[in-house]
Specification:
This protein is α+β, with helices and mostly antiparallel strands. It has helices at 7-15, 116-126, 131-151, 163-174, 182-189, 193-204, 208-226, 231-237, 243-254, 258-264; strands spanning 17-28, 32-36, 42-56, 59-62, 68-71, 77-95, 110-112.
Length: 267
């Protein structure tokens, strides 16, 4: 006998997507510093050794050995160490069915102390190519997120968009370029330009232009870190008139030129 079918729970489980954008085992025995400006993903750090810290609004926050830290999406800070640093890092998006990052609702650095065996196991997983270890890593990332969400009472909320906004967002994703015009998006979404612009700003919380700019900067950053494309090739891909204009825009967003950002591989 079936007592209950909870389709909402089923849909929620199927619609939540943990996307891992980058990860690694980072270490340095020298002084190091980097600027992180309004990233479009959250950072999960497991501190193994050294004296790393972050600076936000002039306040220094040490990152303690043995702890796990979640730095939410959009959180700008300076990340540094004075003598040495060793940590596991994960760049993540926890997305709902519309592709919105559920961790955008958090606004502060969160931390907890996992069992020492957890970090030891994750250190092994991050160096493994085995599928089962990837699944174990995914499970542990979810486990850490749940601990932090519960500890800090983070309320996760999905976002519902009008059909025309969804169509516009999909079109932007597949035709990403500075040359995209609102008229082109409106025609593809089957509404007037004014209707699309108004609904987009109300539902997404930013203008269409700002949304396109953010998407271009995010994709540019990923290409810088994960491909061998030159700065010129990346700038041309997204419709910039020249690579120097692209570099200026990139530095405004991320605090470093594309060349320096790629060299530092900011964690």
């Amino acid at each position: 006998m079936i007592l209950n079918r909870n389709y909402t729970m089923i849909n929620n489980i199927n619609d939540i997507n943990l996307k891992l954008l980058d990860s690694g085992h980072a270490a340095t025995k020298n002084e190091w510093i980097g600027n992180i400006i309004s990233p479009m993903y959250a950072r999960l750090y497991y501190i193994i050794g050294g004296d790393p810290y972050i600076i936000k609004d002039g306040e220094k926050m040490p990152l303690e050995i043995g702890k796990c830290y979640l730095i939410p999406t959009g959180y700008s800070f300076r990340h540094a160490c004075e003598n040495s640093m060793e940590q596991l890092y994960f760049h993540i998006n926890l997305n709902d069915f519309n592709g919105n990052d559920l961790l955008r609702c958090a606004h502060t650095v969160m931390e907890y102390t996992p069992e020492k065996s957890v970090i030891d196991e994750m250190l092994r997983y991050v160096h493994s190519d085995e599928l089962i270890d990837s699944l174990r890593m995914r499970q542990q990332i979810f486990s850490s997120l749940l601990v932090l969400i519960d500890k800090y009472n983070i309320e996760l909320k999905t976002t519902h968009y009008s059909n025309c906004v969804l169509l516009a967002m999909e079109y932007i994703k597949s035709h990403l370029s500075l040359r995209l015009a609102v008229s082109e998006l409106a025609a593809n979404s089957f509404v007037s330009e004014s209707t699309l612009a108004k609904k987009f700003k109300t539902e997404v919380g930013m203008t269409i232009g700002s949304y396109i700019d953010d998407a271009i900067m995010f994709e540019s950053e990923q290409l810088l870190l994960k491909s061998d494309l030159s700065v010129l090739q990346i700038s041309e891909r997204f419709g910039f008139c020249d690579q120097f204009y692209f570099s200026r825009r990139f530095k405004l967003k991320y605090g470093e030129t594309p060349q320096k950002y790629r060299k530092l591989r900011l964690i």
